[in-house]
Amino acid sequence: MGMRRQWRRESSSLRNISIIAMVLPCLPHTTIRHRLGVAARVPLAAVLASPLVPFRVALAGCSLWPGGSGDHAGLAEALADRGAGADWLSWEDPAADWSRYDLVLLRETWDYTAHLDRFLGWIDDVAVATRLVNPPGVVGWNHHKEYLRQLAGAGVPTVPTAVVRAGSGDAGAALAAFAGDAFVVVKPAVGIGGDGAVRGRADDPATADHVRALLAGGDVLVQPYVPSIETDGETSVVVLGGRVSHAVAKRPAAGEFRIHAHRGGTYAEVEASAAHREVALAAYEAARDATGDAILYARADLVAGDGGPLLMELELIEPSLYLHVVPSATAHLADLVVAAVRSR
Q1: d(C-alpha 196, C-alpha 232), whole Å
Q2: Taking the C-alpha atoms of 73, 321, 115 and 200 in order, what is their torsion angle to the nearest 10 degrees?
Q3: Torsion, Cα of 196, 202, 204, 206 (10° steps)
Q4: Cα atoms found within 13 Å of the Cα of residue 220, Cβ hemisphere only
Q5: Helix (H, G, I), strand (E, B) or coil at 322
Q6: Which single residue of 43, 100, 283, 295 has CA 20 to 30 Å from 33?
Q7: What is the pLDDT of residues 60-103, one digit of tens each?
Q8: Within the chain, where are the H helices?
Q9: What is the DSSP letter of 71?
Q10: DSSP letter assigned to residue 242
């Protein structure tokens, strides 16, 4: 009994968990049971499903950051502390065997918009091979920003959004809905990082020209410009496991309206207000209802409207969760990933 208690104490450390994983396949079944202190009548399959036996998680990134960026510093280590071996893999890697993993976590697939059809095909393939988080139905629903109109229809306070269809040749109709001197934002309906987003007057021929240029590559969104972004920036509310985890205030550089760090934006942790929480959770719940899928992580980007916060975007595919800004949230995300694996 003394040896058994000592084994159980030691097996709580990651080092010994890893040793168990390497040694188990080489040991006779009776030895496995003896070492784990399991009676002979317990099926071997149940022994191998024990929490003592680690599992593997793939952190899906892209070829630009093959080992992950600083956004997720500490995530692989947090998973390892919980008995989960974690590997960064590019979604574009043809040699990757996704079936080796118990779960694939979408994290930094930040070049997918340039290869959309291939990416969506990869999403479907991975979902057949193993568990994908967030699920493929969520990815399919969220990759085109027309979802904003659906969320608005569900009662979520949202920046008004018009969609101009590729091939329509009608660049002026959406702009004509605004007063001539009103400023609008024009951007691709499938895009990330503010790429292709332009602010201009609705009656400026250059704005219409930009709409036409974007239409050559796909659908286009036209939204009213929200001037508060210059002073208040955006507030990103991160929802993990259906609950608000943390919030980050993002301020644009002088003369910019895009808040991304690579455009000079600055980030800082803030306390989410009750109004911010309400809108973020309303968007999350509406997305869950629309897709019918469990959503492990979400990021709601909010701006200040005249009547309160407005949803600018709801990111459900590969959003930065700003773990580098709020490192304490890393452990919570790792806990949710481990729970997702064990619940399968």
Answers
A1: 22
A2: -130
A3: 20
A4: 30
A5: coil
A6: 100
A7: 999 988 889 888 989 999 999 999 999 999 999 999 999 999 99
A8: 2-10, 14-23, 29-36, 44-48, 75-81, 116-129, 136-142, 147-153, 171-176, 205-215, 274-291, 329-342
A9: G
A10: T
Among 172-176, 249-253, 299-303, name the one with the lowest average pLDDT: 172-176
∠ Cα 49 52 56 (to 5°): 70
For the four alpha carbons of 202, 206, 209 and 211, in that order, the dihedral sign comes to negative
Q: Which amino acid is at 222?
A: V
Residue 227: Cβ within 10 Å count: 12
Q: How many angstroms separate the CA atoms of 262 and 186, rounded?
A: 20
Q: Are 24 and 35 in contact (CB under 8 A)?
A: no
If residue 62 lies in a helix (H) or strand (E), which one and from where to where? none
Task: Supply 167's token pair.
Answer: 């091939």
Give Cα 178 to chain centroid, integer Å. 33
In contact, 256 and 250? CB cutoff 8 Å: no
29 DSSP 8-state letter? H
